[in-house]
Write a structure and sequence with these properties.
The chain is mostly beta strands and 98 residues long. It has no helices and 8 strands.
């Protein structure tokens, strides 16, 4: 899926290249848009688990989301997608996000 933006909305994909190495959900310029909510869906074809959290997220942080499962992050105060980090138990697993 190519990244798509429409006004304040975004739809994109992120693949974690190397299992065990946290990566930002989205790297944006300093003038990037802040959001109050993001829906993260683990790719149905994933072999392992996706972990969502902060800069040091990993398998000990939380139970993660399995292939095809979804997680919605919500905060009354807007946050940047670059503040959300992903990790995976398998190389090349990824997510779609809206």
């Amino acid at each position: 899926m190519a990244e798509s933006t429409f006004g304040p909305f975004i739809a994109s994909k992120k693949v974690v290249a190397s299992a065990g190495t946290p990566e930002r959900l989205r790297v944006v310029a300093s003038n990037g848009r802040a959001y109050k909510s993001v829906l993260i869906i683990a790719e149905p074809s994933n072999v392992g688990v996706i972990y969502v959290g902060g800069e040091f997220v990993g398998s000990t942080t939380n139970g993660g989301i399995a292939a095809g499962a979804a997680l919605r992050l919500y905060n009354d105060k807007a946050f940047f997608l670059s503040e959300v980090w992903l990790n995976s138990s398998e190389n090349g697993d990824g997510v779609d996000f809206w």
